[in-house]
């Protein structure tokens, strides 16, 4: 039986796939995974999963993110130039208004 092995470098990090082992049961798979994938690099934990139990959803099966336009969630989709021009115009209007108020007070 083939077991896929996922390794975590440090606590709190994601487990990443690092390979597989051939073993008749989970205990042997854990032992083989520790020997083959856990002893050469710093390892916090290992997961072993039967290869047959891993499912996959790819772009042929599903549309990731749905069909709704959600570009507003990403800062790259915003145009800041118009807003920057508006702020500059507003500041100059405020400076002008303040100058006119001061002339009226004199």
TrEMBL record:
Superkingdom of origin organism: Archaea
Region annotation (Disordered) ranges: 85-106
Enzyme class name: oxidoreductase
Entry keyword annotation includes Lipoprotein: no
Keywords: Oxidoreductase
EC number(s) per entry: 1.14.13.149
InterPro entries hit by this protein: PaaB (IPR009359), PaaB_sf (IPR038693)
The protein's name: 1,2-phenylacetyl-CoA epoxidase subunit PaaB
UniProt organism field: Halorussus caseinilyticus
Gene name for this UniProt entry: paaB
């Amino acid at each position: 039986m083939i077991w896929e092995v996922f390794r975590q470098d440090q606590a709190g990090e994601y487990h990443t796939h690092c390979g597989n082992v051939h073993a008749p049961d989970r205990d042997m798979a854990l032992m083989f995974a520790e020997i083959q994938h856990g002893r050469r690099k710093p390892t916090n934990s290992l997961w072993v999963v039967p290869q047959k139990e891993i499912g996959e959803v790819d772009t042929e099966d599903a549309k990731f993110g749905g069909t709704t336009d959600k570009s507003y969630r990403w800062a790259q989709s915003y145009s800041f130039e118009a807003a920057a021009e508006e702020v500059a115009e507003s500041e100059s209007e405020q400076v002008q208004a303040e100058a006119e108020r001061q002339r009226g007070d004199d």
